[in-house]
Design brief:
This protein is mainly alpha-helical. The chain has a domain of about 80 residues. The protein contains seven helices and no strands. The longest helix is centred in the last third of the chain and has 25 residues. The protein is elongated and about 75 Å long.
Length: about 120
C-alpha cells in the first residue's frame, strides 16, 4: 500500500499486545519480534528480509508459520487487528463531509444556483 499522501495512521502494535505476545509465546523474543514486524510491515519487507532482521533462517520462519500453532494463531490475530485498524482508518477518511448543498433543501439549492437568493 504505497500512496502519495497517507490519510491514515499506520498500524502499530500496542505495548499491551507485545506483553500479551511475550506471555503467550513463553518469552520467545524472536517469534514476538517476527510477529510485530510482519504486522507492522505494510508490504515493504519480504519474509526473507524479516527473517534476516530477526536473525533466523527463512526455513525457521516457514516452520513457525506452518507447524507452530500458537505462532500461527497469534500472527493471524495480529493480522486481524491490523485489518480492523485500517478499515476504521479508511472509513474515517472517506466519511462524507457535510456541505451547504446537502444541508439545504432542493428548492433552496436551485434558487441559490439561479442567483435568486
Amino acid at each position: 500500500m504505497i500512496y502519495e499522501k497517507r490519510f491514515y495512521k499506520a498500524y502499530l502494535v500496542p505495548d499491551t499486545e507485545k506483553a500479551r505476545l511475550m506471555r503467550e509465546l513463553k518469552g520467545h523474543e524472536a517469534k514476538v519480534t517476527t510477529i510485530i514486524l510482519l504486522a507492522q510491515n505494510d508490504g515493504y519487507l519480504t519474509q526473507e528480509q524479516v527473517a534476516q532482521l530477526v536473525g533466523v533462517t527463512r526455513m525457521t520462519l516457514y516452520r513457525w508459520r506452518h507447524y507452530d500453532y500458537v505462532y500461527q494463531y497469534e500472527l493471524e490475530r495480529q493480522y486481524d487487528l491490523m485489518s480492523e485498524h485500517y478499515s476504521r482508518e479508511f472509513r474515517r477518511s472517506s466519511r462524507r463531509k457535510l456541505s451547504a448543498e446537502s444541508i439545504m433543501s432542493d428548492y433552496d439549492n436551485v434558487m441559490m444556483m439561479m442567483g435568486l437568493t
